[in-house]
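Hi C.,

You asked whether I'd gotten around to modeling the 137-residue construct. I have! Everything is below, sequence then structure, no commentary in between.
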Amino acid sequence: GGLGPSDRQLLLFYLEQAEANLTTLTDAVDAFFTAVATNQPPKIFVAHSKFVILSAHKLVFIGDTLSRQAKAADVRSQVTHYSNLLSDLLRGIVATTKAAALQYPSPSAAQDMVDRVKELGHSTQQFRRVLGQLAAA
């Protein structure tokens, strides 16, 4: 088997895009965690959360685009899986951020929000690894 040249080229292109977006996302997540750790008010942590969501949404867009353009079924299914997972996690971050803002200064509501963002961080790293593995196949 192996990967066709057009899929490999596509994966390498989007892997590069994903890595650039992951750098931005990592910075956004770090700033978000700092805002929460320093007990910033909702106005501040919500703004940081929105930037995390916006940054991660670019990865969802990359996944959606790649899953539509790839020819190999394996590539399409794995990329679609991560794209959907990231979308679900983003919806969770929106909901927990809203709850944390409404319940401020509730430590448990803030922790729920932090946990969702941590989950997103792990999943975006897995997505990047999978893109790398697929491109190397």
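If it helps when you're writing up: Residues 22 and 124 are 7 Å apart (CA to CA).

Thanks,
B.
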